[in-house]
Design a protein that fits this description.
single chain; alpha/beta; Alpha-Beta Plaits; four-stranded antiparallel beta sheet; elongated
Length: about 375
Amino acid sequence: MNKEKRIKELASEYSEEIMGLRETIHRHPEMGNKEYRTADLIESYLISLGIETERFLDTAVKGVLHGKSGGRTVALRADMDALPVDEATGAAFASEVPGVMHACGHDVHTAAALGAARILSEIKDDIDGNVVFLFQPDEEGRGGAERMITEGCMEGVDAIFGAHVSPDMPAGNIGVRYGKFYAASDMFTVVVTGRSSHGAVREKGIDALGAAAEMVTALLKLPRQITDDKCVLTIGRMNSGTAGNIMPGSAEFEGIIRTLGPQTRAAMEKSFRRTTHEIAERTGTEVSIDYIHSYPGVVNNEEMTALAEQAAITQFGRDRVCRIDEPIMTTEDFGCFMDEAPGAFYHIGAGCEKPLHSESFLPKEDVVIKLAEMHAAVVTVYLKKGD
């Protein structure tokens, strides 16, 4: 029996068990860096499969499945944390934690990776190489990926794969995207300092608010000037002044920048700083910029994406697999792992039209089975390729 058919049979055989894991995780959601119950469940389940485990960062879990000696090492990553949202799905397995729910599908991601571990543990004697399972805390917050990498979770890993549920696709369908997929995320706060004066004698002061307004106007034009790709610069807060007849001596504004690919990210930061300083110099103000790099975005490796696409077509049929035409301006810290090893991030249809982070977002129950099957198929194809 070929591996594709065996994986499908095992996914079916353990479907109730895998869906049960998803329901348990969904009932007991935990916020970032507090995923203690979830981590305990993961560790216990992996150990029951004979998979070596390691716990670090309090709630991060790494499992290693050893196949036949030799071969390469491939990793699967799943994020575990929930969101501060009151659930309104009406599901029989709805959150039992007030004000917290899995509104972004991380319950599916975690259970699917555990399901893949179950499937692969059954065929480990036919696997040439090793499989690393990475269960990551705090994707929704300050990002657990980078901290896991610092702890050495990617040592010896040759390639990595991961996935996210998508409300934009039919349940169980697979979507792949070549190249730039998720945006890099940066945040900024700019403080402009001038000199306050009575509004009737402007010449005695230096208008910080006027300079800040000029900066905002110029900065909002940068995306079109820098790249033909999608690029977003949003200024969401601006504070200045205490009264209508006083020219402010200080002003502050803050916002976000989303870019696709490292070149555009670097170009936007350079232009942001140059534009802001040029206006400050011309207006006689002083400027302080706090520019914070957050997630690096996701840029899929071409070879690994092709491998994932072919694995999906072989496993599910061509009509269940599509190519995603447009990149996404939301962000994901999976890209941190791909800075360490080539990989691909793919989507699986949730079969739910409600948006991510909605109190009503609830992927169909069997989506977790399809994703477990997909993960197992990708792993076996990658390791076979290394024969």
